[in-house]
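Everyone, study these two lines:
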Amino acid sequence: RKSVTKITHEYNGLIGREDTRWHPTQKPEALLRKLILQYSKLGDVIFDPFCGSGTTLRAAKDCGRKAVGIERLEKYCEVTALRLQQEVLPLADAPKEQQKQEERQLL
C-alpha cells in the first residue's frame, strides 16, 4: 500500500544506560523523532494520551512541534516536566532550507 511506510530502527534497549531509563516501556527517542518528522509538519500538535516519561513530548519539542500529553501517575508527570525543561535551539529564525537540512539530520 502506498499509504504505509516501513521505518526500520535498530535499538539495543537501555542495557548499560539504566541511568537514562525513566519508564519500563520507554521508547527510543530517535525512533519517535523519525516518526514525528515523517508524519507531521513544523508547528503541528502531537498528542500522546499515555505519555509515560515524556519521550514523545521531548521528541516533538526537538522537532519544532507542539505537544500535549496525558499521564495518570504523578511520578512520570514529574519526569516529563524535568525532561521538557531541557532546552533546544529554536528553528523558527532559520531559513526554510536550513530547517529541512536539520530535520534530515535528525533522521
